[in-house]
Amino acid sequence: SQQGEEDPQALSIQEGENATMNCSYKTSINNLQWYRQNSGRGLVHLILIRSNEREKHSGRLRVTLDTSKKSSSLLITASRAADTASYFCATVRSGGYQKVTFGTGTKLQVIP
Amino acid sequence: DTAVSQTPKYLVTQMGNDKSIKCEQNLGHDTMYWYKQDSKKFLKIMFSYNNKELIINETVPNRFSPKSPDKAHLNLHINSLELGDSAVYFCASSQDGQGADYGYTFGSGTRLTVV
User: Fold this and answer.
1) Spatial CA neighbour of A73 closest among A11, A1, A2
2) Interface of A with B (CB under 8 A)
């Protein structure tokens, strides 16, 4: 079954606002990754957070990880129209055979 | 300088035909992948090759056959195309064996439409 589930499925905000997307997963993970996909393009790796980390920053991106709740959130601050895209979380299971599994994504629309 | 390039970008073909999608990466990565993204945006791994050796072969019909002539290339050949094969196919590569430590670099996708 699918490992990562993003929430919400779609999000529409005004430029300048913050956008928060959540990812929940079911099994123990080694790390969790966030990707962005612009319409008609491939996925772009944004940030990776390991299971022993709780928070990570990259520019306007902030990712948190709560392994006790098996969830992660991606915060985009001061959003721009160019942030309009689908955002996916990908989990890497811990132990045994590692495999990266993607969720179905959150579609973010930033209105200028 | 495209890191992972795949061709063609669009492919429209009739049922029953055989087609190929090509992928090349210039990142020096050892591992390459094929992913299928369906109409609901769900990404599912199909194959993974590490230095020309098949290491992941998910439950994909044997009409799909990957070929890796060298570690910079991973092509996907599909026989007897069916309507359900319509999707976007992504090639990707990673520095480590499973994309686990550094993530993937994706190509821009091939939109396959079977009519």
Assistant:
1) A11
2) 2, 30-31, 33, 35, 37, 40-45, 48, 86, 88, 90, 92, 98-102, 104-105
How far apart (Å, rounded) are the C-alpha atoms in residues B31 and B53?
9
- Of the candidates A22, A41, A40, the one whose C-alpha atom is nearest the C-alpha of residue A32 is A22
pLDDT in tens, A26-63: 888 889 999 999 998 999 999 999 999 999 999 999 99
Are residues A48 and B43, on separate chains, in Cβ contact within 8 Å? no
Contact A73, A96 (CB under 8 A): no
**Can you tell me the distance from the alpha carbon of B22 to that of B35, in angstroms, rounded to the nearest whole number?**
13
What number of residues does chain B have? Answer: 115
Whole-angstrom Cα Rg for chain B: 13
Closest of B63, B27, B34 to residue B49, by C-alpha: B34
Q: DSSP 3-state helix, strand, coil percentages of chain B (rounded to 5)?
A: 5, 55, 40
Phi, psi of A83 (to 5 degrees): -80, -10
**CB A87, CB A108: distance < 8 Å:** yes
Q: Which residue of chain B has the CA closest to A94? A: B100
Which pairing describes strands B73-78 and B64-70: parallel, antiparallel, or unpaired?
Answer: antiparallel
**Does residue B8 belong to the interface with chain A, where contact is any CB pair within 8 Å?**
no
Using CB atoms, pick whichever of A2, A42, A98 lies closest to residue B106: A42
- Output the pLDDT for position A2: 44
Q: Which two tokens stand for residue B75?
A: 């092509």
